[in-house]
């Protein structure tokens, strides 16, 4: 029969005093070293201590350092709380005089130190240009409203968007996303939620949609304009992106409207493509970080293959326009890359590179991207319609594609180091 684990303390054990030391003031070299050197110098009236918890942040040159220490038994036996706190108060005066910072001492218990919070913690990322105070207030209130607790906040970037990462414990993922979605809607800030853990930083492959994601606008609309069928094709495109029409059916209808266009028009449209701001930074950064990067598009290989080569992408999948006698026939060649086809392409490329799906990222804006977004470990709806945003893992409504890096947890400094 297995033995029960021994209790940590006996019912008659004297509680071990604990104290919280809060250091604040202008940051300068040696403050942390001075504090811990003083804590280590036990002897005389100063009882020995153990370090229980530490957290330090520097905000615009101002240091905030919190240290929880517990009293260790001295030669004369257990140390009472009064004596323990008095010794630390004297230590605080010494450190303050030597460094110029403030050191406050208060009694602390072990609440929150020995008991793990319910559920896995999550990262909540707030992004905006700017981030309004009401977004932070709303997020904090929503988190508290479902029993969550903000354990830490750090800034990820200040350009091209401002972004902050909150570490939240005690909240269930679905409830957290639901509570924060209304805050994002009312304040205009983007709020993403990801579970804390190694999986967040283990992403190794990213798939990008092309039209209105990697590039501005819709290629097929540009081709339709040259065929004099712009209004007709735009109506079909909008219905398809909103999920009102089957993509494969709508694609065939739009391509049929291009019949007779000279093939040279494809070169003209390709040359006029405008990348979404931040696209090159996103791809360059992720490739330097070891990601496999590629595109999966409901558009056309005559456009996407040269684009993939220009950007140094690892893979590409799209539809192929049929050409005969130098003109578009209005038909397609081969299997259609539709909503289900995009998801299949993601799985295929992940398999080719030996990367599990939970280590993949997909970014897109349309209803035909949803299967791909949900198949990936992280699916990001980028400037998408409400129908798509509501079903993706998270959404970005910033005009900069490299804001994806902050959703992945990379700071601005890390991005600059990688490029």
Give me the CATH architecture of the largest domain, please.
3-Layer(aba) Sandwich
Distance between the termini: 59 Å
Work out the strand percent: 25-35%
Write down how many β-strands occur, each being a DSSP E stretch of 2 or more residues: 15
Kindly report the spatial arrangement of strands forming the biggest sheet: 12-11-10-9-13-14-15
Rg computed from alpha carbons, rounded to a whole number of angstroms:
28 Å
Which descriptor suits the 3D outline? elongated
Structural class: alpha/beta
Helix content: 25-40%
Mean pLDDT: 89
The CATH H-level homologous superfamily of the largest domain: HAD superfamily/HAD-like
Q: What's the structural domain tally?
A: 3
Explain what this protein looks like in three dimensions.
Pathway: Amino-acid biosynthesis; L-serine biosynthesis; L-serine from 3-phospho-D-glycerate: step 3/3. Residues 122-194 form the Phosphoserine phosphatase ACT domain. The active site is at residues 209, 211. Its cofactor is Mg(2+). Keywords: Amino-acid biosynthesis, Hydrolase, Magnesium, Metal-binding, Serine biosynthesis. This protein has 419 residues and is an alpha/beta fold. It has three domains: 18-108, ACT domain (Alpha-Beta Plaits); 122-196, 2-Layer Sandwich (Alpha-Beta Plaits), CATH 3.30.70.260; 205-418, HAD superfamily/HAD-like (Rossmann fold, 3-Layer(aba) Sandwich). Helix content is 37%, strand content 26%. The protein has helices spanning 31-40, 81-99, 133-145, 173-187, 198-201, 219-226, 230-241, 247-256, 264-271, 279-288, 301-311, 339-352, 370-375, 386-389, 404-407, 412-418, and strands at residues 18-26, 49-59, 62-71, 102-108, 122-128, 149-157, 162-169, 190-195, 205-208, 292-300, 315-324, 327-333, 360-364, 378-382, 394-396. The strands form three sheets. Strands 12-11-10-9-13-14-15 form a seven-stranded mixed beta sheet. A four-stranded antiparallel beta sheet has the order 2-3-1-4, covered by helices on one side. It has a four-stranded antiparallel beta sheet with strand order 6-7-5-8, covered by helices on one side. Strand 6 (149-157) and strand 7 (162-169) form a beta hairpin. Helix 7 runs antiparallel to helix 8 and helix 9 (264-271) crosses helix 11 (301-311). Residues 1-12 and 112-117 have low confidence and may be disordered.
């Amino acid at each position: 029969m297995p033995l029960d684990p021994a209790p940590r303390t006996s019912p008659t054990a004297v509680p071990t005093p604990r104290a919280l030391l809060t250091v604040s003031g202008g940051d300068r070299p040696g403050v942390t070293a001075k504090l811990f050197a003083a804590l280590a110098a036990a002897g005389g009236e100063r009882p020995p201590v153990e370090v229980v918890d530490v957290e330090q942040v520097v905000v615009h040159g101002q240091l905030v350092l919190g240290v929880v220490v517990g009293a260790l038994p001295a030669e004369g036996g257990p140390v009472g709380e009064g004596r323990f706190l008095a010794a630390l108060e004297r230590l605080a005066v010494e450190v303050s005089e030597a460094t110029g910072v403030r050191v406050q001492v208060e009694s602390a218990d072990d609440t929150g130190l020995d008991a793990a919070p319910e559920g896995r913690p999550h990262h909540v990322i707030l992004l905006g240009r700017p981030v309004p105070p009401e977004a932070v207030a709303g997020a904090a209130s929503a988190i508290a409203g479902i029993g969550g607790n903000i354990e830490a906040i750090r800034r990820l970037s200040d350009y091209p968007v401002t972004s902050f990462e909150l570490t939240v414990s005690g909240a269930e993922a679905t409830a957290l996303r639901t509570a924060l979605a209304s805050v994002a809607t009312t304040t205009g800030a983007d709020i993403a939620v990801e579970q804390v853990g190694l999986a967040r930083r283990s992403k190794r492959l990213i798939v990008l949609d092309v039209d209105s994601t990697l590039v501005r606008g819709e290629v097929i609309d540009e081709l339709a304009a040259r065929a004099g069928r712009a209004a007709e094709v735009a109506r079909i495109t909008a219905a398809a992106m909103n999920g009102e029409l089957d993509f494969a059916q709508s694609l065939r209808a739009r391509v049929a409207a291009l019949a007779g266009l000279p093939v040279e028009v494809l070169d003209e449209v390709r040359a006029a493509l405008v990348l979404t701001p931040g696209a090159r930074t996103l791809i360059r950064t992720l490739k330097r970080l070891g990601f496999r990067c590629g595109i999966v598009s409901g558009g056309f290989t005559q456009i996407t293959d040269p684009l993939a080569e220009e950007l140094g992408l690892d893979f590409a999948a799209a539809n192929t326009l049929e050409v005969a006698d130098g003109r578009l026939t209005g038909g397609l060649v081969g299997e259609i890359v539709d909503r289900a086809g995009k998801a299949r392409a993601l799985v295929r490329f992940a398999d080719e590179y030996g990367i599990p799906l939970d280590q993949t990222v997909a970014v897109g804006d349309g209803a035909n991207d949803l299967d791909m977004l949900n198949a990936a470990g992280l699916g990001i709806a980028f400037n998408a319609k409400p129908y798509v945003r509501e079903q993706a893992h998270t959404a970005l409504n910033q005009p900069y594609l490299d804001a994806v890096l902050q959703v992945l947890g990379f700071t601005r400094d890390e991005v600059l180091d990688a490029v």
